[in-house]
Each structure stands twice: as structure tokens, then as C-alpha cells.
Description:
By secondary structure, the chain is an alpha/beta fold.
Amino acid sequence: MTDRVLVLVRHGQSEWNLKNLFTGWRDVDLTEQGVGEAQEAGRKLKAQGLKFDIAYTSALKRAQRTLQIMLDELGQPAVPVIRNQALNERDYGDLSGLNKDDARAKWGEEQVHIWRRSYDVAPPGGESLRDTAARVLPYYIQDILPRVLRGERVLVAAHGNSLRALVMVLDRHTTESITKLNLETGVPMIYRLNADSTVADKIDLAA
């Protein structure tokens, strides 16, 4: 049987996660904790005995660095890596760089929650989750999924919202249930797919 493996990992803690800032497309690095999370993710995947054929990441260094740290931990540093901004975090527009508490003080708790968690309401000048899905899903369908279905083992290191857009489809979330989903930093999710691209099983390697 063909082993159709897709592993998704949100990047380790970034400098702006630590400072409670909206990051979006701003290109910030990992914290020491984030490096540790990436190392631990690599160790967990190694313990599963996984060997990857190809890896994908975004155009942002927090995801790229997480991926490389994981591949180093796996003892597979030469795995080919494809970088594409289709996998970037959602663009937070005017919120980018703002402290989340300051944003709540300015616009109100409810409005900021809607911008952060709703499916189709975008912050000013930015993207909603639906907008993010509109670039993530075609890239997944055209570039990533065909490799998985051919039996290649694929590792994707990306961001909370670009991965939420993917998980929404894989785990069959509704536009309501996806608003309650939060992906932790540095936690691998291992999917095995059926030949029709549906999920055969999923392992979440949370601590």
C-alpha cells in the first residue's frame, strides 16, 4: 500500500508571538523557545520513523528556520525545500505590528476577536481566513497534494492561519467550527491520506 503521508507543523514561537504582536507578513525570527520547539518537533517526527521526500514552507523566515531545524533533527538536511508565499501567514493589514491588547483597547474585545477568529471578516487592509484559504488551497491542490497521492512523504512548515485553512479541508471543519481551532506552535500533525485525498488517519504529536 502506498504511504500517503502529509505532515503539517506551525512554526516555533516567534519574537512577535512572545511580544503579543500581530505579525502577519512581517518577517520576524524565532525566539530561543521557538528554536527549542522546532527541535522537539523534529525529534518527535524522528521517533515516528518518518523519512521525507520533499518539504514546503512559506516565504517567511520563522517558518523556513523551523523547517530547517526539524530536518536537521531528523538527520535529513538535504531534503529538497520549496518556498512559496502562498503558504504565508494571513496578512493582518493595519493590525500588523500592533500589540493585541492595544488593539482590543482601540477597537474593542469583540471586534478584535472577530478579526482574529472569524472565517470571512478581514481586518482593515488585511486578509480574512477565507482570503487566506483562497491562496493556500489552490497551491495545496496543484503542488502539494499530487505528491502525497503519488506516495511521497511531504513535510509542510507554515503558519497558524495558512495551516488552519488546510486543516479546515482535511478535518472537514465548518466555517463555524474552524473559528474555535487554534494550532499550537511547533506541534506536528501527521496525516495519512486515502487515494481519494480524504484523511485515513491523523496523529497529533502534542506534548
